[in-house]
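Hello again, I could really use a second opinion on something today. I owe you a coffee for this, so here goes:
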Amino acid sequence: GRDMLSRAMGALGAYRCIECNKEASELYRDYQRGVLRISICKSCQKPVDKYIEYDPVIILINAILCKAQAYRHILFNTKINIHGKLCIFCLLCEAYLRWLQLQDSSQSTNPDDLIRYAKEWDFYRMFGIASLEQTSFLVGIFMTLRWMRPEILKTKSDFILLLKALLLSSYGKLLLIPAVIWEHDYTPLCLAFIKVFVLISNSQAIRVTLNLNRMLPWLAIFFGLILENGVVCLFQKMGWDV
């Protein structure tokens, strides 16, 4: 099954060299009896994907360090389909953080069922707001890239691949929960660092997916943040706590 999938992806040119980003027909060659040989890229003469021999923990560490090679391995040479679930879980983390901050600002000891229902509704509202802000951020990125470089997002598969890359690269939001659980005087600073880390990861994901320089991804993220903050201002004018 694994060999059949490997041959099918190779036939479609789905593999990429993690060093030079050129297409590759295969990642390795199986000589049977457990003997594998990593393929060499015809363009840069380096191993197409050295990470196929690495432990997942090492790959994760390299991804945390925002190494382009690790991102290419994850995005192009593996079949990871957790981006949807990861996005929902990250939004739940962000909604929980906002909901907790809202409860801290409005302490109430009234055990009435109506109060408990209102608090539950507040969580759903925070989840909806976080979802709209995330959507606005992504829309801002896509609009900027489409406007600046229309040739890089020509097909539906290009959009889907970039969306998948952006959702996967937002995994840093999972750190919001530990930052809140182990609350400390430096928690606001930790939350700011988490936000910066997520943006850096998003930038690297755009750069690797579309094979761009460093400037354009950051420009797209900047306009994404502008649109996201515009949505926040709209909610604040409506009198909602965000």
In short: The chain has two domains: 6-76, 81-238. The CA atoms of residues 54 and 94 lie 32 Å apart.
